[in-house]
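2024-03-11 09:14:02 INFO queue: dequeued item Peroxidase, len=362
2024-03-11 09:14:02 INFO validating residues
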Amino acid sequence: MANGLSKRIFTFLMLISLVAVALNLLATVEAQNKKKPRRDVPIVKGLSWSFYQKACPKVEKIIRKELKKVFKNDIGLAAAILRIHFHDCFVQGCEGSVLLDGSASGPGEQSSIPNLTLRQAAFVVINNLRALVHKQCGQVVSCSDTLALAARDSVVLSGGPDYDVPLGRRDSLAFASQNTTLNNLPPPFAKASQLITDFANRNLNITDLVALSGGHTIGIAHCPSFTGRLYPNQDPTMNKFFANSLKRTCPTANSSNTQVNDIRSPDVFDNKYYVDLMNRQGLFTSDQDLFVDKRTRGIVESFAIDKKLFFDHFAVAMIKMGQMSVLTGSQGEIRSNCSARNTGSFMSVLEEGILEEALSMI
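2024-03-11 09:14:37 INFO prediction written
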């Protein structure tokens, strides 16, 4: 009996050891997946991986620390900030024009139809981050760089991949017109063919398209952006049970209600969005058609099966997108307030100092 008891104790201890080893390996893999710098991605002239190394070395820590507090109170702001970054980059490039308020010259980009549902609270967060950074370092970090870093941290703090962001963007002096904004933002009713062409014109390939669409794994959508698939006739590519659920949320085409983008894990940045598409539970036409179209279907399936694969490609696509038509060097300005251009057209002494320092690093 003593031997039998000893064997059971030994077996139990061995199982505990194996579980501990497995958990340790899992934690190690997760850590590697979350922080894997992608400095092999080419960057445009004027940007640098270490742009603020001397002028504001703690800029990333300041932003992430503050966003942890913000998201603890409202995780929905993570998706809102990420969406603002997308909408900024696709119109005139990643230069902070979407952050500008309208002026005497006309309404700003936020007044354009695709931007009407951007959360105003997220714009406040960006300006607050800018204020914190400027308090610590002076007016040396642009609003467009602040937004790019905030978008990355929105992904990370929601459970997504960590990646390095090349910095050195300058802020635009003017916002785009409402027509320009409307014509440059891919609509939710777009088919895969339109999206493939649109992204190719921006030097983003099919994999980039499918990966960036994965940003819809967090966030919400307003009924009018997808009820065209419900009324007057139901889109045959939509799961009927999913459609019936959406009809309860959106009883009319113009309902003011909202629906989560990813029904499986709406507040977690993971690969469940692609599982949704495979089950015909994509919210927008622009989502579901990625699974319908043969050119993108295989990528959707690969990302649904392999979260790490999705994370790797998402990080690369974000770095590429974040460099579209950026202003660098002496172009644009560094705004003292993200929602308004500076009162003077000349660069401050601080701006000149950071410019010379950054150029010496490139």
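2024-03-11 09:14:37 INFO annotate: The domain at 45-219+261-361 is CATH 1.10.520.10 (Peroxidase; domain 1).
2024-03-11 09:14:38 INFO item closed
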